[in-house]
Design goal:
This protein is α/β, with parallel strands linked by helices. The chain has six helices and six strands. The strands form two sheets. A four-stranded parallel sheet has the order 2-1-3-4, with helices on both faces. A two-stranded antiparallel ribbon has the order 5-6. Helix 1 runs parallel beside helix 5 and helix 2 packs across helix 3. The longest helix has 14 residues.
């Protein structure tokens, strides 16, 4: 059993910028997870880090709502907080959603939230680290992807 969950969304994700989408997403989450916190990521990396630390310190599993870019930023932040295999969930609502496709995750938000509420599962992921002598530059998932992510 996973949880309790804390849903964190990126309001600038491609899948959330359409008018009316965010209220529908929040209603669907509240329908399945009545008491789960739902918060937006702040603009700065420090604010995002603080929100993730608060989430982890209260024993919640962060469920990230957004696209590949949001997921990438969150993974880097989580690894800087706790490098020992952090657990997180991902509900793909971005522009390309190559990560979700590569992991065979539901691309329909309704199907994804239903799966999370009724039959959550986990899979281990390999993460690569890009660093210099003095600092960690970035983290990334080692997935085969086609489309937007492979063009960047």
């Amino acid at each position: 059993m996973f949880g309790p969950y804390h849903f964190l969304y990126n309001a600038k994700s491609g899948g959330l910028i359409q008018p009316g989408t965010l209220p529908r997403v929040m209603a669907k989450i509240q329908e399945h997870f009545l008491d789960a916190p739902i918060t937006s990521f702040q603009e700065t990396d420090q604010d995002q880090r603080q929100q993730l630390e608060n989430c982890l310190n209260t024993g919640h599993v962060p469920i990230i709502i957004g696209g590949d870019g949001t997921l990438s930023r969150v993974i880097s932040t989580l690894l800087s907080i706790n490098p020992s295999s952090p657990t997180l969930g991902y509900l793909a609502l971005g522009t390309g959603n190559d990560t979700a496709r590569s992991l065979n995750l539901p691309l329909s938000f309704s199907k994804a939230i239903n799966k999370l509420s009724s039959a959550p599962s986990s899979q281990g992921l390999d993460v690569i680290e890009v660093s210099s002598d003095k600092e960690i530059i970035a983290h990334g998932l080692t997935l085969a992807a086609f489309g937007l992510a492979s063009q960047v």
